Amino acid sequence: xxxLKTFFYSLKQSxxxxxxxxxxxxxxxxxxxxYLWFLLMILVLIKSVSFGASYIKNRxxxxxxxxxxxxxxxxxxxxxxxxxxxxxxxxxxxxxxYIFDLxxxxxxxxxxxxxxxxxxxxxxxxxxxNTYILATKNAVVYPxxxxxxxxxxxxxxxxxxxxxxxxxxxxVYNNLLDMVRPYTQKAPLFIDWLVTTGLIxxxxxxxxxxxxxxxxxxxxxxxxxxxxxxxxGVRYSYGSLYKVGMHAVSWPIIASEITKYLKSPFPNFFSIxxxxxxxxxxxxxxxxxxxxxxxxxKVTKRRRIKRSK
Length: 309
Hints:
Layout: H1 2-16, H2 21-24, H3 29-58, H4 62-74, E1 83-86, E2 89-92, E3 98-100, H5 104-107, E4 113-117, E5 131-135, E6 139-147, E7 150-158, E8 166-168, H6 170-184, H7 187-231, H8 238-248, H9 250-261, H10 270-285, H11 301-308
Parallel strand pairs: 4-5
Antiparallel strand pairs: 1-2, 1-8, 3-4, 5-6, 6-7
Helix pairs in contact: 3-7, 3-8, 4-6, 7-8, 7-10, 9-10
C-alpha cells in the first residue's frame, strides 16, 4: 500500500511540480524505472479491462456467428461438382472453364473471379483468367500477396506433391463439415481461454515491452535535452537527465492515450510535448546565480590617525 501511495505521489509531482525533478535527478535508476513501468501497467490494465468488457458484451454473438459461418460454408460447395486428382492430375465432371464466385464479391465491387477451373489451361495463363485461384490439370495457382484486389505475387501448388489420390463431391464435403461441427460448439470456451490468457500476458509483458520501447526512445530524446541543458546552463549529467526523462514522459504518454481514446484526427505530438515539458523542468533545475558581494572593512577614525603618525 505504501508503494502504491508513493507511486501516485510521484505521478502527481511529475505532472505538476517541475521542482520535484531535483529529487528525481539524485534518486536511483530503479526508482524511475519502476515508476515508468507501473504507470504503463496501469494504462495497460485500463486497456485490458476495456477490451474484456467489450468481449463480455459481444460474447453472446459468438455461437450464432459461428453457426452462420458454418451455414455459409455448407452452401459454398457447388451442387453436382466432382473433383478427382489421380496420379497428380486433376479431372472434373463439368464443362470448363468453370467459374465460381462468392456472393460477397458483389458487395465488395470485385470484378475478379474467386475460382476458375480449366484443365486445358496452364499456370502461365494465370494473369489472363482474371481470377484469384486458377486450377489447371497439374497445379493450382493462388495469390500469396495482394493489395486492394490487386495481386502482387502468386504461388503454385503442384498436385503431384499429394501423397495419395483425391476425390471430392458434395457428399464428401458435407461429411467433412459434419466432423467439424461438434468442435464448433466448444469454440466459445476456447475463445474464453484464449482471451483470458492473452489479457494476462498482455498485462505483464505488454507493459514491460512498452517501457523498453519508451526507454529506447528516451536514449535519443535525452541527447536533445542534454544539449538544451548546456545552452541554458543546467549542470546535470546525461544519466541524471535520463532519469528525469523517465518521469517527464508522463505527460506525453497520458496525452497520447487521451488522443487515442477521443479518436482525434490530430497526431499525439509525443516528442514535442516531452521536450516542452523538459524545458520547463530544466529551468526549475537551473541553479540560481550567486552574486559576489564586496565586503568593505570599516576603518575607524582612530586607526586612520595612528597610520598617519
